Structure formats: structure tokens, C-alpha cells
Queue: 2 jobs
Job 1
Amino acid sequence: MEALVKVFPANDFSLLAVILCLPLIGAFINGVFGKRLGREGVTLMALAAVGGSFLAAVVSFLVLRQAQAGSEQAARLTYVAWDWLSVSGRHDLGSIPIKVAFSLDALNATMCLVVTGVGFLIHLYSTKYMEKDPGYHRFFAYLNLFIFSMLVLILGDSLPILFVGWEGVGLCSYLLIGFWFTDEKNAQAGKKAFIVNRIGDFGLLVAMALFVYHVGALDWIGIEGGRSRLLEPVKLWPIGNVVPLSSALPESAAAWLNTPRYVTAASLVGLALFLGCAGKSAQIPLYVWLPDAMAGPTPVSALIHAATMVTAGVYLVCRLSSVFVLAPAVMFTIALVGALTALLAASIAFAQNDIKKVLAYSTVSQLGYMFLGVGVGAFSAGFFHVVTHAFFKACLFLGAGSVIYAMHKRIHDTDTSQDMRKMGGMKKYMPVTFATFVGAWVAIIGFPGTSGFFSKDEILLKALTSQIQSPLPGGKITQMTRAGEQTVLELWQWPSWGNQVLFAMGVVGAVMTAFYMSRLVFGIFWGDFKGWTIKRKWKAPAHHDHDDHDHPHHHHDPDEPLEGPAPVESPWQMWLPLAVLAALSLGGGFLNAHLLHLHPMDDWLGPVFATAAQNVTAAEGGLSLVLAFGIGAFALGLGAAYWVYRLQGGEPARAFVERMPGLHRWAQDKFYVDEAYDEAVVESAAALADTAAAADKYVVDGIVAKLTSGVVQLAGAGLRFVQTGKVHTYAAVMVVGTAAVGWFLIAPHAQARTVHQSAGQYGVVAAPGFGYQYRWDTDGDGQWDSEEFSSQMQQDVTLGFGENKTLRLQVKNAFGRTAERSITVSRPKLDPTRGPATVIQIEQQPDGTVRGVLPGQQPTGGVQ
Amino acid sequence: MSPATKAVFELVPYLLAFGVGALIPRRQGTLERVAIGVVAALSLALVRGLWPAAADAATPAVAPPEEWPHLLNVIVFVPILGALFVLFLPRQTPALLRRVTMGVLGLDLLASLMLLRVPMSRGWHFQYVVDWLPSFGIRYHVAIDGVSLWMVLLSTVTTPIAAYVSFGSIKKRTKELCFSILLLHGAMLGAFVSLDLFLFYVFWELMLVPMIILIGVWGGVEKIKAAYKFFLYTMAGSVLMLAAILYLVWTHKSLAGYATFDYLALANVVLPRTAAWLCFGAFALAFVIKVPMFPLHTWLPDAHVQAPTGGSIILAAVLLKLGTYGYIRFCMGLFGGPAWSAAANLAGLAVGGGILYGALVAWRQDDIKRLVAYSSVAHMGFVMLGLFSGTRPGVEGAILQMVNHGISTGALFLLVGVIYDRRHTREVREFGGLAKVMPVYAAVFVLVTMSSIGVPGTNGFVGEFMIIMGTFVSLPLGSHGGLQAVLAAFGVILAAVYMLAVVQKMFFGPLTNPKNAQLSDLNVRETIALAPLVALIFIIGLFPSLFLERTRDSVQVVLERYTEGRKSFQEMDPSSTVARLLPRRGGALETGYPEPPGQVDAKPPDPSTPEAEAALDPQQGQP
């Protein structure tokens, strides 16, 4: 340990580079050379990369623990790779360097272990699951790239570096959802995920701009240090000084419209960040991509769309907890959105039959729980749920994958092989999968003692008791304006009923979770197998090969009764990860079992959230109430499901569907949210684009190009008639023209211009011409200075401030004709209020010295 | 360790990079392997050679190498002389013509790489001045700074690629093709390095001729119309610019007593308000058409669609940059006041008409090349927004984004050309499921798409990020800066929408069209042409400071001039009609300043009271 600390000092902790680079190298080698390496080579490379990364993460974790031990401060290990770029702060002042830097503290060390650990298990699982896929090397290249991006996301030491990983995982998600790209549906789902995520990324970009402007830092330390600057008011409206055209409105309306509206910068930053989190973590209103993302291979769903990537939003809220707590309104929004998402997704999950879809909505719902937790300021409780959820949801997905793998032996259609109605009785055929699935199931429904029980109850407890304090004691922000000190903004206060509502929603969600998860488990593992008729000595038809994804026309006629062998247990590469994850799901709760006064995780994370905790108040007590509700919710949901699906054989559910077909259909079709988005957002954007394209073609091009050329052509057509081709017409025009030019030459033109030469020195310069001679009247007495015309073109004039002078000029040309003009030269007054008022005026004295004069003062002294 | 072994050890990383690069292609082919290996090794050399800290540590006290004054002359005139030389070669030997052209372009590339040996400190580098038409004050004055450096390198890198690609698909009239490309190349480089407005104008117009030939001879069905449109649009802007140049020169002559077309001298002229606005308008119009900005952009899609692949690459990668470069150098340098005052409105146009409108129109195009052309409008909107922001990150980001756009959009046009060569159509609906038959092509296309939509880690992100941040904190844009930055960030979503839509339609889904079933993947020539672009996408994305480091000081100078220009513009009495001349500031920024022709009574600026003289009396006598 000592040696490790010596090799890897805390401020140059290059082990982080190892953690990061191994998966990147794996991705590069598998992606570029994978086809030549062969399956074994690819497997070895991919597993070694992630496994090595996991080991390095474990070592880093231990070093961090060593550093953290006995210290109240949060320990940090940092590694700066290189300078990336730099931006500047408000009004282009100062420089904000952005380094490619990574850091490790308690929060992301834990996350790092989860990502690499669960990631390794899922890699191992995939070696079997994807065994026969022709894109094997491509799959592992993407998967390794994903691990790399995810690690960049969680280890990044500043928001831009996090953003690199943030978009990187989105990209990998895009590539992996569309992994079987020959199916239009998969490619479509990938695109949808990317674009919806981009909407969230837009929020993150805006948040970064706000940080740059208000805080002047983008790294975690800088943001936390300068967070108080986020409490300044920002004028949202009007954007300029007044609303354009508002003067046309009635006075009161215009006044209302022009009243400045303020919010705190913290609220804006919080909302923008939460938009990003909602995109990545599938919260209302951006959750729609996640269920579609199940089009990807099942290990991808387990890794990316359940255990790791989708929790990035929760991670970001935890990471910037010190900023979020400055905006109680945003925190309440987060908690409320989380609770609503939990309920909405759970209610959709009731009516789904595709087992991956059920799990997908369950993920959305659980993510909602996490946001409920962090939204009420219980950051470590929310993050604890991230960890336990990673265990049991990965286990559930992989278990589902194991079942699908078994179903796939005879049913090659992706949708049908995932249909719960085709399964049943798998308990008998796949004992290991069953046992592990049950382990994860009891965890997610909150069976006392499991990890889900502890993490969910902790969130419920905090939802009932924890509140965000107003960051400013008075709750008001004042600003000096012309009318004196004015209150521009009153900070929003956390409502008194808020906690009860959030708690109630959480409990209802828990009941629903227990119900639909039990429905899923009963449907898959109990009852009779409904996939095909089981024949003892069934043999596969000779022509069959497995990788049906390339030729979907092999489908069986659904009406034709299908025969096949009994489903079998998956190989060890698949059930070993299941077993590990199931063990963690069952036992992981003791990391933070507050009931038993065991909370190593809270203690471990405590220093990270110390700053944020200053703004959070938690009432004492409520534990027994929460415990009662928590266990009650679990018992109610499980009992109801048991009664409906086991005792009554699903009869009440069918009766319910018959009684309320509309409601069921709504839930089954996801409340038509996708359709509503299509109509409202996508279609209107498309219509706008159509309009723009048409306008570009006809209006813009029409006016700028076609109309211009039309005018030119028209002018040409008109002028054509002048070109008659008749010589005498031309001759007549020529004579007139020559005469006009001749007259102009004969007439004299007394033109002159004034030139400023130096202080108070002006020159009046007459224009030259054919044989011109000049005489001047410079003293303004009405007499010519000399009666003789001379060739003197220029007269110099000296003027004091505010003086002016009139000159007369007479010009005689070669034909003896004359013309006259008078010219006034003026020098402006010294005006102390304008012009270069701060500059010392320099005046030339009559004696030739130069004196500096401050505007409005007596001459002060010589300035040579 | 002996120097020899040390040298060998120093070579190891490059050999390693070469080896990895050479292993990348799957098919057998020495040329391809060597080329990709060389690109890999050169990329490493570029990153290590330009690394600021490394250079300092290695050579702490060594003065920067001396600047060879003729280097720019070589860079500009090698292609022009090459073009003339090509005229004397027989047209029956196309292979020889191609080789000569590639040789000249390669030589030029090597020469331009020498520019990197000198750190781009404040002031002008590789300056070379000689009288050309002394009676009009016209001089041959070339120099570079951190802004033009990257423009020069961008053209010397992309033109060989464009030429190489053209030689693959164009088989007729090779001699004219070689001549046009070389002449175009020389003219573009000349325009980037000219510091004499007359010289600049000559090169600016000289560029048009070969470009029209490229479009009009080797173009598509409506090539003549497109060439005509391109010519007229550009010409309309540039004649107004000529008028403004002449006015500026005339004003300078009447103030200083001698004529000069030199940028450095003309930058000291402060025009009265109306005249400044008109001259700014004339210059800005010429550049804005070239960029192009809404609503003067419609020549671009037509020109791109009709131009051959090589022409499109040069057009997108370099020619458009002359507009943005001109805006930095001339609009912001000569007319800081009007440019500053117009910035907020123009930025609105760049966001609304460029980033958002361009993206929406691009989304609705059926022709891939047209789509990429409109995406250019959106990207160039970002560049212009960065310039209008007038902040250090904004302008630096804009310069980087110019390079990025050259690389990404150049690569996209190249890729579109690949599929066009095979299918002779660019309609999106003709394709689908291509990833199955052309996996490498699809992978490269997706990669370039990611760069084009600004995924972090690629070059596109860095530029857009800096521009958005720069816009948000901008002073010239005032309270609108925030909104414009947010809308620009929103444009990033739209970029993903239109690019991913086309990627999905072309590459994913089932392979429906039987005509596509037998398409061959990237051939050796195309792979070699794409390799450096792909390498640059990552180099800039990961190590942008290599590039930013060399522009930083020059951007500082640009912004100083910009602010100064605004200050002197504001101090000008609005009703005044008389121009004035700022005193010379001297120093590195004004080396090569045109001295008045050898008169004895020509008054050099009085050193004792230079500032006071200027500040004394801003308002002039009024007749």
C-alpha cells in the first residue's frame, strides 16, 4: 500500500490513465483488427481490457480509502493529461483553461467500481450471448468504447470532460441500439436515442455557458468554490431593454410586458443541467427513447440502459449537488419529476408483455426513484440506489437475456421470443437463471433485508423528512436600481405539503413495482411452458443456422404449432455473472443499512456531499412510519400479484382488461406519448423545415437571384431599343454629348475643401482645373487680397477653439471666365462633456509653448 | 548513449505509429499500407512537434529559427509557375500531367509545413515587401500571422487531396484540370497572405477563373448555369469591395499625402461615419457572399451540386474560408466601428439564417450533396457567429472551426463523390443498407458525420464549444449574446437530426435496391485521400491547443484592432465628413509599413507627442 501511494502520488495519479486507456485500446484493437484476430482474440482483448480496468479501479479505490482514512476532508486523486483548450469568462475577461484532467473521489470511485465490475460481468456474459453473431468483434469494440466513454464521464474533473464522456456514451448507445442495423426499426431506435439525448446535451451546453459567465470555472473545485456567485439575479425578460413594438400596445400591457423578470443564475443552471440529466436518465419529458433502446442486444440493455449509462444523470446531480441545492425550486422540480416518472413508467409496465419492455419501464421508474432521492437532498441515498439498482437490474436483464437465449433456440423472431405469454414454467428448465432472477426480483420489490429494501426505504424516508433550505437567509435578492434599492426576486420556498406528496407518490410507486415485477416473474417461471410443444427427441432441421438477424424472412407461420426440445440452462459464461449479481442484489444492502445502524457507504460519501448538506435540513424520526409503509407496499403489491396471477390464474387481470379495454389499451400503447411527440414536435419541426426549404427555393433564391436577373434582363430589353443601328441617330447623340462636355470644361468651378493640418491649423485647398488661376479674400473684408490671379491653390488658416472664419475664392479659367465661392472654416468649441474628455487638451500658446489644459480648467502647466 | 542510438530511440514511436497504421487496411496493397502508415507517423510527428510544452523543454534557450523571407513567395508561386509549366506539357500524357501536378502540390505542402517552425508571436512573419507599381503605391506585400497560417495550411493540405481524388474520377481534359487546380491553389494562397489590398484583390479575382472552369467543364448537368451563378454572385460583391478599396486609398492619400494600398497604412485611416458604414458594407457584402450567409447563400448549393468532387472539396474547404478570413482581416481590421455596431444584428442573422435555417433546409434535401452544402451554410453560420462575438474564445473557435469545416465537409464531399462515382446518383432514396456492402465506407462516413455534428473528441466539438462559450460572454452582442448562444447550441441538435437521418437512410435498414448489391468498398485511392482527413479530425479534436496556441497572439491583435477601431469610430463626430489618420503605433505590428515616397518635407510623425496629437481635436474643420 505504501509503495502504491509512492508510485501514484495524489496529484499525479496516473493509474487513472490506466483505467481509462485499457478499454480504449481494447476498442481500437477490436474495432480495427477484430476480424483478423478471430473470436478468441477478440474475447481475450475485450475481457482483458475491462478486467484490467476493474483491477486498476480496485487498486485506486484502496489508495483512495487510505487517503480518506482519518480525514474529514474529501480526499481526491487527480491526474492531468494535457491542456485541451481555454475559454474566457464574463465579458471576455480572464482565461478559463480546460484541461484533460481526471479526478477520483469517494463518489466516482464507487461508481467506477460499479461500471468496471458490472461491465466486466456483462462482457463475460456477452461472449456467449453474442457467440454466433457475425458482428462479434464490432460488438466488443463498441462495448469497450462504451466502458471508456463511461469512465471519462465519471472520472472527468470538469464539466467539459464529463461532456466528452456524456456524448461518448450516447454515441456508443446509438451504435449498440442499432447494432443489428439491417432492421430499419433498430436503426430508427438508435437515431431516436441519439437525438433525444442531444436535446439533453443542449441543456448541458447551456449550463456550461452559464457556469463560464457566472462562476468563471468549469472544474468541480472551481464550481464549488464559486457557487455563491450563482445567486445573482439574471434578467430573463425582456431580452433587450424593452420589448420591440411594445410601444404599440396599451400602456398597461406594455408596462406589464416590459417589467423585468429575474431568476437566480442557480435556477437556470439547475434547470439546464436537469434537462441534460432527464435526457440521459430517461426522465419526463425525455424518457421516450429508453424503451425503444431495447432494440439492442440484451447485454447492451443490461449494461448501458440499466446499470450504468442511464444513471449518469443521477451521478451528475450528485456531482454538482452543491450547485443544485442553491435552487430549491429546481430541486423540488427534480424530486417531483422523478416521482411522476416513477409512477408513469410503472403504470405502463403493467400492460407490457415483452419482458424487456417491462424491464425497460421498470428502469425508467427506478431512475425516477433515484431522482426523487437526490431531489429532496438525499444525495447519498439516491446514489446508493444507483448502486443497488445496477446490481439487481443488470441481473434481471441478464436473466431475461438468458431466458430469451433459451427461447431463441426455436423462436427466431425477436419480438416473439421476448413475449412473456410464450414463456412459463421456466423454473423447471433453467434452475440457475430462475434462482438468480428471484434474487434480483426480491431486491427490486423491496423484500426486507435485500439491497432494494434498504435503498428504497432510505429514499422514502428522506422524501418524507428532508427539505432544501433557502440559500439566502432573507429569501430575497435586492439590487440597486435608479429608483433605489429594489427587491428583484423573491426566492421560492419549499412548500410545506411537498414532502407528504412526494412520499405518497413514492409509496404508490413501490406498490406498483412489486405488482408488475411479480407479474413478470410469475409469467416467466411459473405455470406451463407455452413457447412450443416439447418433444423429447426433437432434432433441429438441418438447414438451420442461428444468426437469423440477417434474414428475417425465416419466420415461422405463427399459427403452425411449433415443436422443439425442452429449454435448457445457459452455459456458465452466462450464469456466473448472474450468480454474482444476484448475490450482490441480496447482500449489497448492508453497505447502507441505516435500520441496522450500518452505514459505511454514507460515511464514505459524506465528505463529498458536505457542502451540499449545509443547505439541506432533515427532520428526525419518521423511521417506523416509513418502515411500515415500505413493507406494507411490498406486501400489498406482491400479495395482489400472487392472488391475481397464481391463485386466480390471471383471471382478474383479464376481467379488468375486458371491463376497461380503453385504459388497458392506453397503458399498453404507452399513453400515446410517442405519438403525441411525433405529432407535436417532430411533425411541426418537419413542417417548419419544409417551409424553410420551399422558402429557400422560391422566395430567397427567387428574390436574390431570379428577380435580380429579371430586372437586369428587363433593363437590357429596354435599352436595346436605344441601339437602333442608325448612324445619324448616333451622330446626333454624339454632338449633343460633346457639346455638354465642352460646356462643362469652359465653365469654371470654384471648389475647395478643408484639410486639418494640426491643432487649429487648417488648409483650404482649391480644386485644380484646366488653366485655373485663383485669387483669395482671406481677411473677409470683401476685398481681394490681391487683384491679380495667381496659381496659389491653398490658404492656411489658424483658428482658436470655437472660432470660425470665412474666406472667398475666385477662380479664372483658361477662357477668362470666373466663378466665386465663399468657404467657412470653423473649429468646434471645447466641450468638456464629450469627446476625449479624459485626455489632457493641448493648446498652443502664442509664445510657441504647448500647455496641457484639463477640460474646464485653467492651464496647469507645461507639457512638452 | 551515443547520438546514433539516441536518434534510433527517438525514431521508435514513429516507427511504431507507422507499423500500426500500415496494419490497418485489411486488403493486400503496399501503397495503401505505406500511405496510411505515413499518415499515422506524420500525425504523431505533428502532435509531438507542435506540442508547446515539449518544445520549450527540449530547446529551452534556442532562438526560433530564422524566417526565410522568400518562403511565402515559394508557397504562392510554385503552384502558379507549375500551372504555367503544365501548359507546356503534351496533353497526350495524362499520367505525366497528374504526376507533375501532385508533385507541385506536394512540394507546396512541404514548403508550407516549414511555416510551423516559427512560433507565431505578435506581428507579421515571413514578411516580404517589394514595390510593384510605385506610382500607385501598390506593393507586393505578403506576410502571415496566426490567422492566415492555418488558412494556408488548410489549403495546402486539402488541395492535394482534392486533386488526388479528381484524378481518380476525371479522365477527360486532364491538362486543363491540372492547370485549373494549380492556378486556383496559387491564387487562394496568394489571397490568404496578401497584405496589400490591390494584391489581395488580384488574387481574389484570379481565384474565380479556375473555379468557374472547374464547375463549368467537369460539372454536372446544369454546370453552366451553376458556374454563371457562382461568378455573378461573387463578382457583385467584389466590385463593390474594389470601390471601397479605392475610396480608402484615396482618403489615405489625401490625409497622408501619398497613395498606398497597404493594409497596415489603410488600417490607420478613420473614415467619417457614413463613409465607414458604406465601405464596411461593401467589404462585408463581398465576404458575406463568399461565406455565404443568408440570404446570399443560394449560389452555394447549386455550385456544389454541379461541381465535380474535387471542385466541391476545394470550394468548401478553402474558398468559403476566404470570406471568413476576409471578414477577420479586413472588416474587423479596417472598420472596427461599424463591424462592432453591426455585430449584434449580423450575429442574429448568422444564428437564425445560418445555423437554424441552414440546418432546417438541409434536413429537407433529397440530394446528399445539396444536404452537405446546406450543412456548410449552418457550419459557416457558427464561424461567423464566433467572429461577431468579438471575444477571444469566439474568434479562436471561429478560426479553428474554419479549419474543422474544411476537414469535415471536405471529407463529406469526398465521401459523397465516392458513392456518386459508383452509382451516378446522389438521391438519398436510391440507397439504403449500404453498411452491409460497404462496411469501411459506412464506418468512415459515420465517423465524419460525428465530426460534422460536433461529437466531443472530434474536431467539430472544439470549435462549436468555443464559439458558443465565446458568444455567451460576448460584450459586442450585449444582452442578446446569451440568447444567440443558446440558439446556436440548439442548432447542435438540428445538426444531429439531419445528418443522422441521412446516415440512417443511406446505410442502415435492409438493402432494398438491387443496384446497390454489388457496390465495391473504398478503393485504394479513396482510402489514401481520406486517411489524412480522418487523422486530422482526431488530432484537432484531442489536441486543439496545438492550433490555438499559434493563433492566440494574432487573435489578440485582431481584437485589439477591433476595439481600437470601435473607439476611434465612436469618437468621430457623427456629423463630421472628414476622415483622419491615426498615428503609427510602430513595433512588430507595423513592420513593412509603407513609408512615404522619398520627399524631404514629408513629416514623419513627431515622436514627442504622438498620442496627444491624435487625441487633441477629433472634430475637424467643417467647410
Note: Residues 366 and 428 of chain B are 6 Å apart (CA to CA).
Job 2
Amino acid sequence: MRVHLFIPCLVEDFFPEIGEATATVLARAGCALTYPEGQTCCGQPLYKLGQPDAAKKLARRWLELFADATTVVAPSGSCVAMVRRYARFFDAEPALQRRARALAANTYELSEFLVNKLQITDCGAAMPGRVAYHDSCQIGRALGIVHEPRALLSQVRGLELVELPRPAACCGFGGAFSLEFPEIAAAILEDKIADIEAVAPDLVTCAEVSCLMHIRAGLEKKGSRIRALHLAQILAGTAE
Amino acid sequence: MQCNTQGFDAAATRACQDGHLREVLRKASTVFQAKRKAGFDTFPEAEAHCRRAREARARTLFRLPELLIELESKVTALGGRVHWATDAAEARAIIVGIADQANVRSVVKGKSMITEEIELNDALMTRGVEVWEADLGEFIIQLANEPPSHIIAPAIHKSRADVAQLFAEKLGETGVDIPELTLVARRFLRERFLAADMGVTGANMAVAATGSLLLLENEGNIRMATTCPKIHVAVMSLEKVVADLDDATAVLQVLPRSATGQKLSAYVSLLSGPRRAAEGDGANEFHLIILDNGRSRILADPLLREALLCVRCGACLNVCPVYRAIGGHSYGWVYPGPIGAILTPLLLPDERTDALFRACTTCGACAAVCPVGVDHPKLLLELRRRHAVTSGSGRASAAALAFAASRPGLFRAAAWVARTFDPDLKRLRRCPGMGRLARYAATRALPRLKTPFSRRWPVLAAALKKGCQNV
Amino acid sequence: MSDDSRTNILQRLEAGLGTLPYPGCLPAPDSIPSPLPDAASVAVQHGPADWRLLRTELTNLRAELDVATTRAELAEALKRLVRAYGIETAVCWEHGRLASIGIDVLLAAAGVKVLAATCVEESGGCRALRDVDLGVTAADAVFLDCGAIAVRSGIGRPRSISLVPRVHLAVVAEEDLQPGLHVLPELLRAWGEEEGGLPSAIHLISGPSGTADIELVYVQGVHGPLALHVLALSGDWAGAEGHKR
């Protein structure tokens, strides 16, 4: 199966290793990968800030970049959720709207792609240790992806999956929110970190890049020994 | 309640750094979420019940003017009086007028957000009328002269020792443990109920087909306030009317479950007009105040009128991560949490309220629990969109970002510059105008800029190809 | 002026509804209302099983249930109640069921002074019951899905009887049982038809009064009764037949 890699902006400059892990996992699963160059941003932050016109420009660009794609996969739920909104922007351009709908229907978050499209849960990975999974809001609630990451993690050799006390509670990042209201974001994060420490895992993971960044930063600031990795990194068996 | 939404940033920052308040809010959130979950997990066909409740509320909105006319007609036929109030000032004037006319010297109240909204208590008190909040939590904060910290449990920030001291000071009578303190309040307020000339409540619902008022509670203070005094004044947010007994029951079946996990509140009162002739108790004068105060404007808004479906269960507050961190007081007005972040800007269009709808992580927990299907994130994003248009704020930087993101070369160049000269963004955060980045950085470690994925891809692609060939 | 406000408010609402589009997922104005879901309802069996179910619900609501199949059991239950709550004074609804079981006599036999329901009317309201220990009512309906007891106000049945005294005793019978809240509208409509309209007050009572406003610690009994006790007349209850009113 040919898969076009959708690399979120945060991954491009701050977490390229997550992109590498994603590509590795997909390749091992038998996908032929295409990486459209020139990817910048899906427009989500602009949309959430109430700037849909600006977001629309980026939507149009994204649709052009991925025009040849039959299947698109991203290591992020929020970006996929944004792509699934694109069609709304183009009421006045029916042809583009059709393309947007078609592409959106074939754009997937990594875990949903592996489990639901490729029907695989075993990525051949091994990572011994206690791992807690955080249900990112943009993965669990926005896209309804709840059991897929857990199914994948349960097949990782040596991995003991533990549930967090409030697994679906928001980590507090919320995109622009954490820049506009950093103290509130930190307070929300504090409770998430406390939940993580309460189950004493070796590692906490999630399928959303921004949550990972936020949670890892909170753990590091506390001097915690608990590591934070993206789901893709565990499935690729890579740990940076 | 005085509006202080412009103080949101400062209030919220203070609140989320107040250890005691955080502890109290965590506890409330945990308890209420658990209760609600227990109530819904054991609710057969919960979805169907919620859909039916939503239908009832939607029917209300579609037929609102006609239902209010029918309600007025039925209440009047039962011997009640209906008053229409355009705004808070008019509602206050009407109620003060009723009190004046009947020489009312003391009032007992059921817990009512709408009476907070219209700032009723002060209006009565300046006329020399004694006003007693009779819901225990409201009573405590009234004595303490403090604002509520939580909508369902307004005095939750007060320990038993705090309450004991408060009662000793203000009532001249106190207790040690919580049951004792509750009995002290019961004894004190019983005398107030029995002596009061007027009882004031809100309205959970009003049934147009029968002219009946529906009131829910656990304490009994609403029953006392509507049974003992001679006059009952009910202030109703105009969208609270429902078409008939079926629609009322549909909402009744979900409201207590969504609020506290109870199948029903301890007391549900269905009141149809004043007492009948030869009845021994109940008010003999019933007044219903139908209040607009901005709701008609919301109804006229096709994209935001959905907010009027709200039945005030409080479930959205209890799951909101922001509310859990900052509490109700930070929202600066009567309605906190996700629904407050929508209603307040709509009801107070002339105040600075944008912080309320900007302070949302769009996590969606609120929409997931709303029994009538209000899609809070959708409404909040629409408020943000409108604010961006009217204030023009962020437009320039959004356009700039869109410009840059449309030109990958530019994007890459900017990232290269940052990565080369300031990978930890240390210098950037000290730049003027980058204050927010600095505040952000103060709270956590910033990520580092690395060799971008696009630069790594060629090597990676080759390695993967090789890997596949070897497999 | 209220009249101008009325006109203005209604005009604004009418005008406001004129703006389309309306959220598509909401029902159109003239669609037929859906029936109320009844998934939570419980089949009334007209036997001891009903009381077992009711006991489960009432226990969850922190209310007590006694089931009496004979006069002797009824008298015993009342004596226990009087002792347990230290009842010295009581007031009862004027009601066929209560009269036919001779509640006044039974309470007097247990050493309780019984006041007439008319004392409320005569002394101008609730105050008459301020120091009364026990208020006794029948029930107009008992909902098996949630344990709620419906009481209608009326002449000889003041609201304060189930509100002001320390303890509320509701004497219920099989004919009161309803499968669930979903029948509430039809029940209310039937009552309305019987009486030419709804009574001034109907209360659905689910347990004693309570609050957790201090430290979220639940306390039973605050402004309403401190305890709710239900006495069920079970089986072929000779002498308790008769009108509900």
C-alpha cells in the first residue's frame, strides 16, 4: 500500500525522530512511502485562534501537496481532525470540496491506520517496562480512537500497559491555549503528572505530538525519571 | 453579581496557584464526575433519554414566543401574575415593587443563579428587606460575605472549622462536626422560613400546557420557601419554558442524573398557581417573572442559539480541565465553566469577555457529557472567530503565519536561523513582544530545535528501502 | 412597563426565529413528539416482589420501608417507628386510606398526640407544625424505577405535613405503584381530568432532605424532614380498601 507521510509542523522542527519512527513503523508494515516536500502547517492553530481565512489558505496548500495521495498517515490526531474539517471551507468550490472530502476520508492517524486499515496490532516491537498511555483529547474524543493504541501497545514484547487514573483527562496543552494561559496550562499539567507518578510507570506514551511535548516538559521540569515517548517511537522500537 | 470578566487573567492565574483552592476543586471534580458516571452507567438507554431531552429543549426554542404566551395564559388562569422583564433592572424593579406593595420585610431564597444575575439581593436589602439565602452553601457564603467557589457546592472552600467559627460569630450558635453545624443552620433558617413574607426562587422549568413551575432540590429549602411565606416570586430565564408535561418529564429524567448522578433530586415540586381556596398552606400570591436580559438576542443568532438548550446541570463544569484548575470565581460572573464561557460573552456583549472563550483547550469533555448535546467547543471557536474579526487582533500575525507557511523556503529559513542561533529559544523569549513565550518557558522546559525531518528524509528513505529489501 | 416589555420581548423572539439556518439536527417545529423512553421502567407485579424492589430503591435513597400484611403488623411497625424516632406528636392527612386503617387510633395507642390536619389552615400555615414530630400522608403514586413518592396537595392535605415535621411517614398501597417516571405525564393528565386541573402543588419525594455543602460530606436532614419512612400495605388488605382520596 502506498502511503503519503503527513509530517506535522512540530515534528518537522522539534520532534523529527517521531517522523522517523512513524516512517519506520509504516515501512515495516509493508507500506511504500511517499513524503511530499514542502510541508509546513495544516492550519489548525490558525483555525483554533479564530482565523479561518488564514487557515483556509493552508488548507488549500495542503490539498495541493497531497493531491496525488490515496492514503495519508500522520502521527497526530489534531492534524488529522483538521484535515477532516477542510471540506467546510470550500462550500463555494464544489470540485475542491469533493477532493477535500475524498482526501479526508483517506487521511488517518497512525494507530487507527495500523489497526483498522492494515488490520495489524503487532509491529514487531519490543520495549520491556511499565508503560502508561495518555488518551489525547484530539485522538480519543475528537476521533474516537481509544482501543487502537492500546491494542498496539499490548503487542509490544515485554511491555506492561498500565492505566492512568484519569486517562482521558486533558494534559492542558490545548495549542495556543498554553501560550495564552501558561499558568493554567501548567496547573492542568500538574494534575496529569501527578496521575502519571501515581502509577509509577517507566514511561508514559501518547499518540499526539503536542501532548507528548507538554507532558515530557512537565516531567523534565520536575526532574522525574519517567520518560515520555510517542507511540510511534515505541512501535518502531526506537527510543531516543 | 458585578461583572469582572476583564480580570479573568489575573484571577485565574491567582486561583490556579492557590493550593487550597486547587485541592478543593480536585475533590469536587472527582466526586461529581464519579457520581455522574455511576448515574449514567446504570441508566438504561441513556442516549435515548438524552436525545429525547434535547428534542424537548429544541422544541422550546422553535416555539418559544408561542409557549411563553401559553404559559402566561395558564398561569394567569390559575390566579398567578406574570410579569415580563426586558433586563435585570426591570426585573429588580418588579420584584421590589411586589415587596413594597405587600410590605415585605423578609425574604427567603432558594438557590438561584438568575437572581444573582439580576443582583436582586442588594436591591431588596437597600429597601430594608432582610434577605436570607436558604441553600446551605449559599447561606454560608452569604454569612461570610464571599463569592461562591463552585456552582453546585458554593461553600466547598470552607472547612468545618471555618463554618463553625462563622456560625459562632454570626449566629451566636455553633457546633463541632458537620451534622451538628447542619442542624444549627436548620434551626436558624427554620425560623426565617416561618417568619418570611416572601419566598424567591428561580425556575428549573415552566410547563406551558399547564402553567406549572418545576423546581428541583435536595435540601427542602425551596419547598419551605414556596410553602411557608404568603408570596412566592419565581424568576425564570425565558428559555426555561417547556411545551408540556411530556417534555418536562423528558428533561426531568436526565437533569438530576447529569448533575449529581441521582435518578431524581430529593424533592421535585410541580407548582401550579397559588394555593387554592380553603388550602392551609402554600403562597396565596404567585408571581412569575419572565426575564429576557439578552436571551432574545441569543435566540436570534443561528450559530449560537444552541447555547439556550442548556438545562443548567453543571456537568460541563465538572469535567472541564480549566474549571478544575481555576474554579468558578475566576470567570468573573454568574455562569462559569464551558457554558459560562459561551453565555457570559453573549449576555454581556459590552464587557471584555474574550478571555473566557480563549481560555479553553478544546478538549471536548464538555460536549461529551452534555445531556442536551450542546457542542461547546464549536460555539467557543465561533466566538473566537467573531472576536478576531471585530477586534482585528491576531489578524496580522495570522496572515503572516499563513504567508510564511505557504512558502516552505521561508519557513525553513526561519527555522534554520532559530536552530543555528537560538535552538532553546532563550534569546527569542527575551525579545520584546515575546512575553507570552517567556511566561510559557517559566512553567516548563521548552523543546529544542533539531535537524528537521525534511533534511533527514533522504537518508531515512534509503535506509528503509534497504531494510525492506533485507526482510 | 411590563406590557411594553412583553410586546418587545415577544417581537424580538419572533424576529429572532426568522433567521435561518437552524441547526439541522434539531427537530422541525411541527414534528410529532417522540415517546418518552421507558427503558428504566419496572414491571409492576402486584405482589411481594414489588416491595422488595421498592426496598432496594428506598435504601439507596436513605429511606426506611416497612411492609405490613395485617393490622397487627401495621400496629407493630408504627410502634417501632414511634420508638425509633421519639415521636410524641403527629399530624395526618385527611385521606380515605389513612382513615380506613385508623391511623389516628393506632398512633394514639402508641402514645402519640395526634393533631388535626386543619390546624395548619386554622393557624395560618406551616408554623402550626413547627414542633410536630411526625407528618403522615398517603401517596398518590410510587415509582418503582426510582422509589419516588408523589403527593398531591389539597384540602385536608396541606403541603407542610410532608415537609415541616421531623419525620415524614408515607402510607402506600399496591394501587399506588407505577412502573416508572415515563408514565408521569399521563398520570398527571389523568389526575387533572379527575379534578378539573392540576392541584396547586405536587411533590415527588425521593428520600429525606440532605446536603453535602460542607466539605462534600453528606448529612441526612437539613430543611425538609430528617427522615422518610414508608409503610406499605401489602396483599389483600381488608379494611384498607377504599378510596384513595
Note: The longest strand of chain B covers residues 231-237.
